[in-house]
């Protein structure tokens, strides 16, 4: 009986661990996606400002 209970607890712990790791990976990827989007916007703004500065001179 004890062995069955510990096996069930072990399986539940393993499932919880896998779900937690998957959630952490998704959160990390979302963070990198947001950072990449901000960098893309900054690069676009700098490129536009650079083109306007070249056309003025």
TrEMBL record:
Keywords: Membrane, Transmembrane, Transmembrane helix
The name this protein goes by in its record: DUF2207 domain-containing protein
Organism encoding this protein: Actinomadura alba
Transmembrane segments: 5-26, 32-53
């Amino acid at each position: 009986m004890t062995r069955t209970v510990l096996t069930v607890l072990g399986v539940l712990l393993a499932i919880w661990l896998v779900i937690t790791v998957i959630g952490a990976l998704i959160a990390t990827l979302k963070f990198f996606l947001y950072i990449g989007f901000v960098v893309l916007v900054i690069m676009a703004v700098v490129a536009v400002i650079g083109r306007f500065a070249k056309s003025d001179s």
